[in-house]
């Protein structure tokens, strides 16, 4: 079974999210979450159960405290903080939309 467009786009969103967290020095704190997403994503193209597990994992995350979903990145400059957090919000929202479509 070939990968659906949603899975390809999700891989791109997760990769960008990972880069953003690495640039902020937060990849260690959120590494397990991203590794688990990438792991499930690698199977989701061929295993329907993996796609369902990925959807459940991503949609369940926002309800847990201390996750990526309540992260706010601090910066000295208000403009820079706003820019970075707006991008973080965009990535989170896109990831959730993709998860709902699985």
Describe the structure.
The chain is mostly helical and 102 residues long. The chain has helices spanning 5-23, 27-44, 48-60, 78-101. The model has no long low-confidence stretch (mean pLDDT 85).
**How many strands appear in the DSSP assignment?**
0
Global mean pLDDT? 85
Determine Rg (CA atoms, Å).
Answer: 14 Å
Residue ranges: pLDDT <50 for 5 or more in a row?
none
Helix content: over 70%
Number of H/I helices: 4
List the helices and strands and how they pair.
Elements: H1 5-23, H2 27-44, H3 48-60, H4 78-101
Helix pairs in contact: 1-2, 1-4, 2-3, 3-4
In short:
With 102 residues, the chain is mostly helical.
Structural features:
mainly alpha; 4 helices; 73% helix
């Amino acid at each position: 079974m070939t990968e659906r467009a949603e899975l390809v786009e999700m891989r791109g969103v997760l990769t960008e999210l990972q880069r953003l967290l690495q640039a902020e020095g937060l990849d260690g704190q959120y590494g397990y979450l991203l590794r688990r997403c990438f792991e499930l994503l690698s199977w989701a193209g061929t295993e329907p159960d993996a796609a369902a597990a990925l959807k459940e994992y991503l949609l369940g995350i926002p309800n847990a405290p201390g996750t990526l979903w309540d992260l706010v990145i601090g910066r000295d400059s208000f403009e820079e903080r706003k820019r970075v957090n707006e991008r973080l919000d965009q990535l989170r929202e896109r990831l959730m939309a993709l998860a709902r479509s699985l």
